[in-house]
């Protein structure tokens, strides 16, 4: 019988992990260490598992805030921008837009074509607070209660306040009701005391304000982040062997063992060696998922290292994650309505995280004030964390963003250090959306200002003079092509701002100076860009416009040369712009007035070549195609939208395609998609200003210079005094003048020529008016103490100060004027007293 082969000297790694199933028959050495004292000694016998962090990008590096540099365990990969645990974050971009803006102290509602459909002022609303409502009242129950007394209230107008008693045993709660009806508060207050269904409920009118509109010119503070600890439990694993207990502890801490897919921390073992105690050593597993049980714990530990006993604590609270989310959401809905659905993080972190966007900023701030650090409704020992998130958005041309991306990246580290998150959304219709957000409003505002500076670009100047020429409005001109060559050589973006008549340069700061230098040289060498080049505008009659559309403009452009003539279809009236010499202008004028048929087609229209802008009839730059199929330059589309303010008709943005015959009204959503964020907001503001200017019998601006607040006018029989909420100036809503304390008729008389003549006559005759009742008085003789014959007021004739008694008036005359106005005889004081 042959001897057994010698066993190799290599150690069995499965035995070291406690998973060798061959026992004594194993061909590898089973080294049993006397004591394992540290993770380092244990790791000598265990194959180091692959670090799972190597597959996860560093989220702090994505924010520019990683402090570990190359030693970070997570890869620093340039993954998709805006990556975060809020995996559903993109959904908020699809939130319902209400198309309302707060402008001039009013709430403006916009419709298609960017036309103003409604203007609401604070005076159009009224609000009431109901106290001593039953605990648990909801907006639905309040609406039902008011319906029983004949008042119909929309659900969105009700806000439930937290219980009035902050301690246990609260007996009631409150509700604020705000309605677009100035008489609502008066009606409710008259019905509450007499209705049996509202017995015990107290109602009081409260100040009203218009809901805050949403705009991209300001930061947005309507989103809150909520988080709370997941339900957890603790497990105690009992072992009879201290070495095995240490192995299990170390393997949990090395993340080899997991419970329900989650990494857990292990402590211990604690205990004392005792051969009579089979459970001498205890390892504690902390923060286990609430769903963990003995089976799930035992499943992750091999048979060789199984504990002899497992004991579990009760979960910190019994609710599931979904149930806890529902209860927190219920708390938030009692404060205000949401915009879109709440977003719950799918991360398996120790805290459940949810973000909610409220319709109104006031509700978001109220949620933070009332719920932050409040006890959880399902776990009185746990606390809810609620933080207000401030954000600012920019939508810019994708080419512009690409040119300044390196400058934005240079700020990422500083923003990340302030816990600011920068997101960039995928380009859409030629635009890229950038959002900066954080929990500290001042930091967000600072980052917003830095982004505004970057997106404003640098205006190209030659000394103090802005570089611009009319030839740059033509997309097919040689001057425009020269600009494109500068862009390509230096890797920058040059925006031709036709409205402001300037060139704005976007790119790295190091290149902007070189761009300006090359542009100055270009303006010196290009005859069309030189100061000697003149600009002539030829306005077209309807017949001349038709001639130009039917081939005349193309023939004119061919005769004059590239870049000399520009066709402006958007302006009113339509025009052709000549950028050249006096001879070019005379030739163009002769062709237009003579109506020469240069290349005139047989049809009554000329189809634009594919790729040409319908507004300027040149190749579209940064093209935008509308839903009706017409192509515009991005700049021409902006001009089309902004030109509506200067027309005599109602502000309504229509398509100028098919030689301005399309006339399709653009939906607001399409306008928002095709314009940059700043331009879109500027268009809405221009529409509002146009609406106020065209309706002077309904709305007026506050007369204080640069105030900009709007008030509603009234008929003379309903005249009232409007006090501006911004500058506190008072104005009559009927005659639009400041005459507080007087009627309109009295004011008109006071300011009339007749009143002025009367004042001159009274002054000549020595008459004065009583300061209290305006009764005219004449002093013929006697002292300077006068008693008004109309109201009996005691008056100082010299300064017209009034007194309650004659004694006070005489004391005043002696003290202030050195006498009572006559020479006193001996004993006069005794007689007067």
TrEMBL record:
Tree of life domain: Eukaryota
MF terms in GO: ubiquitin binding; ubiquitin-protein transferase activity; zinc ion binding
Domain C3H1-type: 6-33, 57-79
Entries under SUPFAM superfamilies matching the protein: CCCH zinc finger, RING/U-box
Gene3D superfamilies on file: 1.20.120.1750, Zinc finger, CCCH-type (4.10.1000.10), Zinc/RING finger domain, C3HC4 (zinc finger) (3.30.40.10)
Gene Ontology cellular-component terms listed: ubiquitin ligase complex
SMART domains: IBR (SM00647), ZnF_C3H1 (SM00356)
Gene Ontology annotations of biological process type: proteasome-mediated ubiquitin-dependent protein catabolic process; protein linear polyubiquitination
Keyword ATP-binding attributed: no
Pathway the protein takes part in: Protein modification; protein ubiquitination
The protein's name in its UniProt record: RING-type E3 ubiquitin transferase
Lineage summary: Eukaryota, Fungi, Dikarya, Ascomycota, Pezizomycotina
